């Protein structure tokens, strides 16, 4: 199954990129973002896109401007994730035939993002919004809207978010931290996958 788990590899280096990519794919996580405030992120993303050969959806996070979108298009990235709702970035991402997941927190931001063409909504920081806050916002979203909880979510609360209607999750420090051994990342990924499968089965 293609799980709606986006691995957020903030701080990833180009040297770590391919072993970490392999570990995530093997564990069953096939959506991967490298935030652009990581070391040499475009080098990592370019290498990961070529290495995955279509076996994973590779993209960037913390994308704040259209110039970055253009660079991502040039290296074959498939996904643009942002911390904010910027209609220009969303439009540029869609024009470049990449998936767009902008960050939102309020009903206004959520609907603005969807009107601009977003493929899904990244609710961030999810731990501040809370399950109840998300459940309230979800009532005004169009049916079938893809929603991701990002920030303070993990295996211990996947089921609670699923019950509120979330589609998926973005997982950062609970999965990966700079310098972490690949074996530990792989173990974390397997834990995430088990919890996701239990919650969404």
TrEMBL record:
InterPro entries: Aldlse_KDPG_KHG, Aldolase_TIM, KDPG/KHG_AS_2. It is an enzyme of class 4 (lyase). Pathway: Carbohydrate acid metabolism. One of its GO terms (molecular function) is 2-dehydro-3-deoxy-6-phosphogalactonate aldolase activity. Its EC number is 4.1.2.21. It comes from the Bacteria. Keywords: Carbohydrate metabolism, Lyase. Homotrimer. Belongs to the KHG/KDPG aldolase family. This is 2-dehydro-3-deoxy-6-phosphogalactonate aldolase. The lineage of its organism: Bacteria, Pseudomonadati, Pseudomonadota, Alphaproteobacteria, Rhodobacterales.
